[in-house]
Amino acid sequence: MEPYVLWIVVVALITGVSTLSGPEFEALVDGTLKQALKCHPQNPGLTVSVVKDGHLLFAKGYGVTDTQWNNPVTNQTLFQIASMSKAFAATLLVKQLDKYSNLSIYTKVADFMDPGFSFSTQIRTTNADLRDLMSHTLAIPSNSYLRMDSNLTRENLQHRMPYLKSVHPFRTSFVYSNLNYALVTYISEKLGGKKWEDLIHDELFQPLGMDSSTFVTTIPEFSKAATGYRNGPGSRLVAVPPALTRRWGIWAGSNSILTNGIDYAKWMNFHLNGGKDSTGSPLVSAHSFGYLHAPHNLISSTSKYFLQPNVPVSTIDTSYAFGWKNGYFRGNKILRHTGTTFGYSSMVTLFPDLNLGIFTSMTGQDEHYILRNLLHNFLSDSLLGITPWLNATTMCTFPNPWYSSISYSHYVIIDKTISASRPLSEYVGTYHNDAYGEVRVILDSKGQLILNYGVASWCLWPKHSHDQFQGEGRDMLDETLDIHQIKFHSSHSAIVSVEVITFQSNAPPVFTKISSQPPASSVIG
C-alpha cells in the first residue's frame, strides 16, 4: 500500500471521516455513480451533492434532463424534492414563532384558525398543537386527492377538517400526512401576511444564497428543471405533465420546492451549522432550531430491505423530528428524509456529529426507496473512509447476492372488455362528500362513463366485481394517474353512493348521490 493511501486510511479509522479532497472524492465515486444510473434506466437523470465541514465537497449531475433531447444534467439542474420541502416548512414556522412571545410549538392549531374550527374528534380540536402537525401525531391521513378539488384553497382547507377521519387514537402513532403540512403552510401564511412561497424566498432562500431554488407552483416554465417521469405501459417512461406537477404542489409546504445540487448543499450546511448562514449569523435562534432535529414521535418501522441480516449494514430510522427523521448508520447518528412525487425521487442524509451531508435527487420512480438507499449507503461509506459494502456491480444486481428478489408494482393495463353490472346510465349523477366536495359521473357522447373530480378526470371501466370500476386517467392524468378501486353502492337496487377507495385507502371517502343528473357544464363530447 502506498504511504499516502495508508495515511488516509489511518486518519479515517481514527476520525471516522475520509480525508479525501473534492477531486479525490469525485475520482472515488464517479464511476460507480455513472454505472448505477446506467443500470437503472427508469431513472434518466440524477443530481448529487456532498458537503463536509461547511464546504461543498462534490456536486455533479448524471444522465439527462429529458429523454427527447438528451440534454445533460448538471449541478445547476432543478429537481422537485417533494416531501423534503417539509423541513423548509418547519424551519420557516419555528423562525416565525421566534417573533412572538405568546406563541410556540405548543400553541394550539385551533388558535390559528377561524372561529369554530374543529377536527373530527374533540380531543384533537382541544389539544392538537403545532408540534402534532409537524411530527405526524394527529393520525389523520394525507387525503392527497383533495388537491384535485378546484374549490380547495390553503385557507379553506381548515373547513374540511371536521369531516376527515383519524385512523388511530390521538398521539399514539406515526401516521405520515401531507395534510399536516398543508395546514402548516396556511399557518405560516397567516403569521407572515404573504404567500408561503414568498416567505420561504425571503426568510430562507435569500439569506442562504439559494438563488436558483423555486417552486412548482410559481415557476413560469420548467425549462431549467429535469423532466419528471413515471413508468407507463410496458415500462415505457411517461413524462409527467407540468399541469399535474403544479396542481399536486398546492399544499406548498408538503412538496413544492424545486432546487439543485449547489443550492441544496447550502441548505445542508445551514442545518449542520446549527441554523446559521455561511457567515455564522443565526437565522433561527438556537433554542428554536433545536426543535427541528429533536425526536418528537417514534417511528416503528424501517425499510426491511436495508436491515441486517438481509444486508451487511443497517440503515435505521428511530424517530420523527420536524421534517427530518432521526436514525443511525454504522453507529453514527443521522438525520434524513425522502421526497417522492410524480416523476421525482429524492433523499438527504446528514451526519450532524461529523458535519457531513449527502443529497440526491433523480427523475423516475424509485419504489421502496431502493436506489436512493443504495446511493446513500455507498456515498456514506465513501465519506466515512470505509470500504463500501456496495460497488458498481452490486448496485446493479441488488438485492442479489444478499437475497433473491424484491416485489415491485407494475403499470396495470386495464381490461376494457368487461361488461358493467347494470346499465351505465344508472351510475350517472352528482355525488357529495362533506370533506371532498362533489364528484360527477357522466356519460359522454360516445357512451363512455366518466368520473370528474375538480380538475381530475377518469374514464371508468367495469371490473368483474359487482358495481366496481377502475379509472383510467384522462388529459393531464393520462398514463400517469389511474385509480383502481372505485365501488358504487346500492339500496333497493338503485345506486346511492360511490366509494373512491384509491383517494385514501385506510379511510376511503364515500360520496352520496344527490342528483341523478350532473350539471349541464359537466357533460362533455
TrEMBL record:
Keywords annotated in UniProt: Signal
InterPro entries in the record: AmpC-like (IPR050491), Beta-lactam-related (IPR001466), Beta-lactam/transpept-like (IPR012338)
Gene3D superfamilies: 2.40.128.600, DD-peptidase/beta-lactamase superfamily (3.40.710.10)
The keyword Signal appears for this protein: yes
Domain Beta-lactamase-related: 36-366
Signal sequence residues: 1-19
Protein name: Gigasin-6-like
Species, as recorded: Crassostrea virginica (Eastern oyster)
Gene that encodes the chain: LOC111131324
